[in-house]
Write a structure and sequence with these properties.
single chain; six-stranded antiparallel sheet; two-stranded parallel sheet; alpha+beta
Length: about 475
């Protein structure tokens, strides 16, 4: 009855433990990490910031409407009048409003604005004891066109476009880096799971060998010293199980912290450890990596930004001009309806030049510094290309070597299992000591762990190849890591 109760309690404990654990595949872990990872959140916010800055600048290129109103203004001043060469006291009450439409022209970097100022004024002058009051309206069209200089509006838009593209690239690169990191922690947790399973299997084998030697000692067929050695081996194996449980718990906590899961959730990782032989064309891998790696595009953006800096530097102490045109109508009258009874034309044309004379070589030195920056960025681009080629070659060599290591590890496990079973039979027949059997058990555990590690290394290196080339050789399709944010 007691045995039945104990068996039922074990079954119930296993059922509840299994239900409490959350099975987690690598794909599910990546989805969780993309939503909860602090680094991804920061990168996503940077992407949003770059996108909204560009949207704001594009909106600024559209017509801007503004209205300013001053409903009341009163002044009372004593001032000297140059017209009559005497002091005069003036009192003025004014109300006015200004409506303005401004439109930047991106093709020429000009600005066109239409301005209308409507006002009412009641003014008294001590000179001649006169009072003037009435309405006035000033409507004008103004054009400002910079000359002999670069288009600042176009350059600013292009800089913001490149900043957005760079943020998108950073986001994609960060996602790939997160994928690699999550995979490493995921397989580390799996490695600890397998180590625990192997340790538990070794413990069960030790229990069997312990029972065998205990029965033989009780029957007087073996020396009692063999029992002492078996007890030591069993205790050591039990300690190994406890150590592996601690290591597994630590690995799970590190993994949950990385992907942003609750530390109180109990998980079990479920990997796909099937190993299919992947044929990799090294020439195709290198060509695809060079054509699609986002780091190369980032270096190109750096070169383009350096060229923009050179353009801005060349504009330092530059010869430039400004053309301003203004045409309009002005009307005033005591009666609002007759405000344009006798309008006045207002025209203004101005052409100005800024002519540098001597800057002691400042502009020339700054241009040389900007050109040196461009050359430096070009060298960085070439170095990035070489790094990509070298890294892809290294990954390719590692994959080839790891495939051989996996096959060797599989055969080693088979050999170690057969060796252990043969020596266990010798141990049962009294032809082998418990210490010797423990050596073969440890050898079996070691080979099993080596196979697990070889498979994990191959999986991680295959992922590394995908990141290095932006091509999934398992699915035989290119990788497109850039994702648009949901707005």
């Amino acid at each position: 009855m007691k045995k039945l109760i104990l068996l039922l309690s074990i079954i119930i404990n296993i059922v509840f433990t299994t239900e409490a654990q959350q099975g987690l595949t690598l794909e599910a872990a990546l989805d969780i990490a993309e939503e909860n990872s602090p680094s991804i959140k920061r990168t996503r916010l940077n992407l949003v910031r770059s996108k909204e800055n560009l949207n704001a600048q594009r909106a600024a290129l559209k017509s801007n409407f503004s209205l300013s109103i001053n409903p009341f203004e009163y002044t009372h001043n004593r001032e000297f009048s140059d017209l009559v060469s005497q002091w005069n006291t003036r009192e003025t009450t004014t109300s006015f409003g200004t409506f303005r439409i401004s439109q930047p022209i991106i093709t020429t970097d000009a600005t066109i604005s239409l301005t209308n100022r409507f006002s009412w004024q009641n003014s008294y002058s001590e000179y001649n004891d006169t009072r003037t009051k009435g309405f006035s309206n000033n409507l004008s069209l103004n054009i400002n066109q910079p000359l002999f200089t670069y288009n600042r509006t176009k350059l600013q838009i292009r800089e913001l476009e490149l900043a957005l593209e760079n943020s998108q690239l950073n986001y994609a690169i960060q996602r790939l880096a997160l994928e690699r990191q999550v995979a490493q922690y995921f397989y580390l947790a799996y490695q600890q799971q397998q180590s625990l399973v192997i340790a538990e299997e070794a413990y069960e084998n030790m229990k069997k060998s312990y029972d065998i030697i205990r029965n033989k000692v009780d029957a007087g067929l073996s020396a009692r010293e063999e029992l002492f050695q078996a007890e030591l081996n069993l205790a050591t194996s039990s300690s190994d199980v406890d150590n592996q449980k601690v290591s597994l718990a630590d690995a799970k906590d590190d993994f949950k912290l990385l992907i942003g899961m609750s530390l109180y959730d109990d998980i079990i990782v479920i990997p796909d450890i099937s190993v299919d032989t992947i044929d990799v064309d090294i020439s195709f891998a290198i060509d695809h990596g060079l054509a699609n790696r986002m780091e190369l595009r980032q270096r190109e953006i750096d070169i383009e930004n350096s060229q923009f800096s050179l353009i801005q530097t060349k504009a330092l102490n530059e010869f430039r001009g400004d053309l301003n045109l203004s045409i309009g109508f002005f009307g005033d009258n005591e009666n609002l309806g007759e405000i344009y009874g006798s309008p006045t034309d207002n025209e203004q044309v101005s052409l100005s030049f800024s002519i540098p004379l001597w800057d002691w070589g400042e502009r020339k030195s700054r241009i040389k510094a900007a050109e040196a920056s461009i050359e430096s960025e070009k060298i960085s681009y070439e170095q990035e290309e070489n790094d990509i080629i070298i890294n892809i070659r290294k990954v390719y060599r590692n994959l080839t070597n790891l495939k051989n290591q996996i096959e060797i590890a599989k055969q080693n496990v088979i050999n170690a299992q057969l060796t252990y079973e043969l020596n266990l039979e010798k141990y049962e027949n009294g032809d082998l000591t418990g210490m010797d059997l423990n050596i073969y058990q440890n050898q079996l555990s070691e080979k099993q762990l080596s196979l697990t590690n070889a498979i994990i290394s191959y999986k991680l290196e295959l992922l590394n190849l995908k990141i290095q080339t932006l091509y999934d050789f398992e699915k035989k399709e290119p990788v497109t890591p850039i994702k648009e944010l949901d707005q």
